[in-house]
Each structure stands twice: as C-alpha cells, then as structure tokens.
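Quick one:
INPUT:
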C-alpha cells in the first residue's frame, strides 16, 4: 500500500444557503469544495474495476447534497459535515475537505474565504 495514494475532487461548485446572518442564508450563493481522500489504490490499479476503489461520483453527490440541501451558519460546520459523511460512506483512511466562500460579506476586495478540515478514520 502506498501511504500517499489519494483521490482528489477539486473545484466542485454548488449553490447553498450558508452564513452567519439571515441575509446570507436568504439567497443561494456559490460554494467551492475540494475533497481529498487517502486510500489504498494498489488493488484498483491492478484490476481496473470500479468496485475496488472509491467511487468519486458518490463523493460528489454527497458533497452536493450537504451544500445544497442543508444550511449552516459557519463554513467550518459545512466542511466538517462533508468530511464526516465521506468517512462514513467510504473506506478512506483520511479525508481533507476545503470549502471556499467567494461571496463572503467582507468590507473590502478579496478572492475567497477558505476553511480546511482534516479527519482521520477512527479505528
């Protein structure tokens, strides 16, 4: 097993209603999500079969459901919920989730606000 084997979904964009204020939660706004999964990729590299790996389509669907169907005041909670769901639904050993909020209500120009959470599997 290679310790650094990863599957990465980068730049997924969804519309969600998340924010500390009611105004932020009234209208959907874009949220960008990255998910990194640490998993053993030796077997799928040999077999070339989807059942031997983590189906990243399912990870995309999970992230979309959390962002689009739930509402959080903090993007920290949003990222943590995605991370917990990924660990619960996959065989990943560790997950890193990044959530970016490019339209955060800040008083000046900025590119984005980003939160990163890291979660190991508790064995």
């Amino acid at each position: 097993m290679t310790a650094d084997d990863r599957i990465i979904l980068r730049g997924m964009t969804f519309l969600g209603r998340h924010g500390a204020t009611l105004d932020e939660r009234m209208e959907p706004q874009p949220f960008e999500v990255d998910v990194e999964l640490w998993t053993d990729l030796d077997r799928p590299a040999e077999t070339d079969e989807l059942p031997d790996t983590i189906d990243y389509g399912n990870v995309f669907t999970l992230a979309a459901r959390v962002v689009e169907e739930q509402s959080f005041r903090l993007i920290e909670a949003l990222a943590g919920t995605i991370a917990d769901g990924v660990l619960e639904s996959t065989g990943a050993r560790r997950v890193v989730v990044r959530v970016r909020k490019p339209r955060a209500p800040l008083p000046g120009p900025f590119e984005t606000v980003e939160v990163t959470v890291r979660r190991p599997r508790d064995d």
